[in-house]
Amino acid sequence: MTLKDKLQELHSSRGCLLATNFYNFETLAGIIASASLLQQPIILQVTKASIDYLSLPMVVGMAKAAFAGHEAGGWLHLDHAESYDLIARCLDAGFDSVMIDYSEQPFDENVAMTTKIVKLAEQYNANVEAELGYVAKLGQSKEKLGFTEPEEAKRFVSETGVHALAVAIGSAHGFYKATPKLDLERLSAIKEATQIPLVLHGGSGIPANTLRESIRRGICKINLATEIKDTFMRNLHRLLAENNEIDLRKVFPPAIQAVSALVKEKLGTVSRN
Ligand code: 13P
Ligand code: ZN
Ligand code: NA
User: Which of 18, 48, 173, 270 to mutate to test the pocket of ligand 1 (most atoms within 8 A of CB)?
Assistant: First the structure.
């Protein structure tokens, strides 16, 4: 099943997929182990920075290999892309889905670029996600939030034909200083106005009950990145401080396990609705 179709199905059933960013073999191994254990489909996603780090063939090869041993299946998604060329290269390389992030551009430019990507993706039967409103990036001020306006979202969706829409409702990338309060009324209004699968960015640091409520109100994809990096690196620091082992194959597994435990918990949250 294509991700486009799967998200449509989840839009109707008020279900949700977890979309986890991976960075290296170890984080990928931790993620896929839990998805397999729970027999849940999952979205594996990478940003340009991870593609620069791993190389495009490596990203595609790793994801393919991970899915080969995972019966519930999954999809490879390009997260937060700002360039047409990168998106075209990823679609050619076999990505199932791409995000065009023109959320910091004026509305009309966001519409124009997203429309272009939707046309391109049609040739691949690939899913396209766009963002309207503004979810603060890592390191950017969370005060600079531009919430998604339901009526504007409706116009955006009908003008672009985009398949899934990332919404700005008070979440932000990275951890939060205080427990985030999502504008759930706004979320419901956006769902009502657009009638398409909605995406929640900034999943790290959002409490499980808030994630569940957002799914009930129409979120069909929840993005999780920072907690994966943080869990892996904090555990790795501890393991390295504790021993002088140079066989990395003996050092990494507990950190992989920790990522796995995190993803298991999040998959539980996302599926239990
Ligand atoms: P977090 O880093 O807050 O989990 O956000 C992830 C994300 O939105 C990736 O696109
Ligand atoms: Zn994001
Ligand atoms: Na976050």
Answer: 173
